[in-house]
Write a structure and sequence with these properties.
Elements (H helix, E strand, L loop, with lengths): L7 H8 L3 H14 L10 H8 L3 H7 L2
Helix pairs in contact: 1-2
């Protein structure tokens, strides 16, 4: 089964940025999508927000 959620480590690998920068980016996405702090960001939401193709994101998130 494929994962649905994206985590800071995945974002860090995809963007080649620090883990802290990845955490900030995920928080920015949550804010933009009116999500609470305890809710997850899906791979589809991340892909839509960043413009990175979903297939590329899914292949990176093992």
């Amino acid at each position: 089964m494929k994962r649905v959620c994206i985590y800071p480590k995945d974002v860090s690998i995809l963007t080649d940025k620090s883990l802290r920068h990845a955490q900030k980016l995920l928080q920015t996405i949550k804010d933009a999508m009116n999500k609470r702090k305890d809710q997850y960001v899906t791979i589809a939401e991340f892909s839509e927000y960043t413009g990175i193709h979903i297939e590329l994101v899914q292949s990176t998130c093992i």
